[in-house]
Amino acid sequence: MRVRSLSAPLTAVVGLLMLLTVGQPPASPSVPSAGVPASPAAVDSRPNIVLILADDMRADELRLMPSVRRLLVRNGTTYRGALSPHPVCCPARAELVTGQFGQNNGVQNNKGPWGGYQALSHPGNTVAAWLQDAGYRTSHHGKYLNGYERFAAPREPGWTRWDTQVGGIYSYDRRAVFTDGDRIDGRYTTHVIGGRSDRTMARFARSGAPFFTVVNHVAPHGSRRNGVWRHPVAERRHQDAYAALLPGSYGEPSFQERDVSDLPADLRRPLIPTRDLVRLARARARALLSVDDAVRRTVNRLRELGELDDTYVVFASDNGFQLGEHRQRGKNLPFDETFEIPLVVRGPGIARGAVVDEPITLVDLAATFLEWAGGVPADRTLDGLPLGRIGTDHPRDTILVQIGDSADDDTDGWRYRGVTTGRYLFAVHAGNPRNGVLFDRAVDPHATVNRIADPAYDEVRRELLRRTRELTSCSGEAACNQSFGPMPKPA
Q1: Per-residue model confidence as pLDDT tens digits over 38-57
Q2: Does the pTM of the predicted model rise above 0.70?
Q3: What topology does CATH give the domain 46-389?
Q4: What is the DSSP string of 340-384?
């Protein structure tokens, strides 16, 4: 456990003496000026931040992770309204490291001219660099932005320890290759990444400086073998777990939806064999048990190091996933199951066992990390808000949601763009604002009736479209976090 360099009473006395002497308040001893690395003695009272990400995990799969529930949910706050507003791998991670929506950081999809690592504007200008400049030790472990492996370098600006996986990313138990040249064969990658990140945190803790560590696990993302996508691979000891599990929405009207003729043509799918969805749900749950084990070991390692009480531990996913709802299997789709993600936070001052329903997005996390670190400045215009301010001094009632396209020149890389409110989910095709989805959760909680062409919702649609147009061009805290006021009612 780090020891504060000044006790609270002594700090107050010193500050008062300085104020009386020079007539100005003293600079905080724990927050250095931007761009100037501080000595460990000056920053040793600031908290560590550890972000642990799953890949493609649904919000309702949190129930399948006993260690996460025991160590984080019971000892922290669960954000039940958490969203990934751009629900696919690379854009979601770009939002995390920049605190910006895709129209501002440049990343709109996983690949193509508007996607992947190469689309990220100023790739070295991230939350890691801002924290590092302020005296934090920083590390990244596991999967990064899609396509990074083609640009792989031993170091990435902003990261003290750059331990990103560049080979075997979806191979699970066959091989893993890292930027430092390490190649691991025949070991389950989740535990390899967990062990490497835990050892890095131990080295950081011995330095006396606070640290920021990001751990990107690949489960429950599908595996890839010989160019073919398959179900995620479970460890041998978990292969018989959850033998009776059914997909989370099994039996609900949205699961294997009977009639999808009211959806846009590019969202209509044939029925998926239910047995395939059941097998996929069980494979995902078994792979998540290994992530659960890794989280348990990380929390226990922080406790052994004496750092747990001084550390914010954040568990989240990059996006949700459709498991048969609306006949869909996948992500990057304009449905609630894709936007909804798990988000749990444990740490100093975080309420234990609490649940928050206020919508929180991945875009908000960079601003939150900087605030936890004592008000570290960003070198980008942040579009998100710190968690502590959302719904209190800065209410917002409408959140931007977006779906990218990897090849459409006519729409500049966008496919669907829209908004979500407490009652409505709305998204329209980037090239045709009358083609899209409008779901009214108040009367249709399972989103089985698309109201986009319903005359009774004309005023509702026009208002949601107005909000969409304003937010898709937004930049910065004030513009991207608005309270538009009451919505018109359906006729």
Answers
A1: 444 444 689 999 999 999 99
A2: yes
A3: Alkaline Phosphatase, subunit A (3.40.720)
A4: B--EEEESTTPPTTEEE-S-EETHHHHHHHHHHTTSPPPSS----
